[in-house]
Specification:
There is one protein chain. The chain is mainly beta. 0% of the residues lie in helices and 50% in strands. The strands form 2 sheets. Strands 2, 4, 5, 6, 9, 10 and 11 form a 7-stranded mixed beta sheet that branches. Strands 1-3-8-7 form a 4-stranded antiparallel beta sheet, with no helix packed on it. The termini are far apart.
Length: 127
């Protein structure tokens, strides 16, 4: 089992930055991929970013590429999502996820790659 605990959400203005953290505990040796997804009110969950547990490979959705960066601190078993130049359309609940396989389909890692999910962190960007 793997437990994921997110932190770092909040209310910011457009153009501001925010960093989300996702701390993993439990059987982290089984983790091969970490992902970030978000879900805005009334919309479907969408892929944001992913990285391999080694941190060697990262992947981003087109809507966040160049603004968001995901990274990992292996010593802390913590994954980060640095979000810069935030826009109102980035407003959503952000979820981190962990899976035993890194698989890319159509330029994203699909949600079914992941076995474990965090509780979600609200990010609100005002205009």
């Amino acid at each position: 089992q793997v437990r994921l605990v997110e932190s770092g959400g909040g209310l910011v203005q457009a153009g501001d930055s925010l960093r989300l953290s996702c701390a993993a505990s439990g059987q982290t040796s089984n983790i091969k991929a970490m992902g970030w997804f978000r879900q805005a009110p009334g919309k479907a969950r969408e892929f944001v970013a992913a990285l391999t547990w080694s941190g060697a490979t990262t992947l981003y959705a087109g809507s966040v590429k160049g603004r968001f960066t995901t990274s990992i601190d292996g010593a802390l078993n913590t994954v980060y999502l640095q979000m810069n130049s935030l826009k109102p359309e980035d407003t959503a609940v952000y979820y981190c996820a962990a899976g035993g396989l890194y698989r890319v389909i159509g330029g994203i890692t699909p949600a079914d790659v992941y076995d474990y999910w965090g509780q979600g962190a609200q990010v609100t960007v005002s205009s």
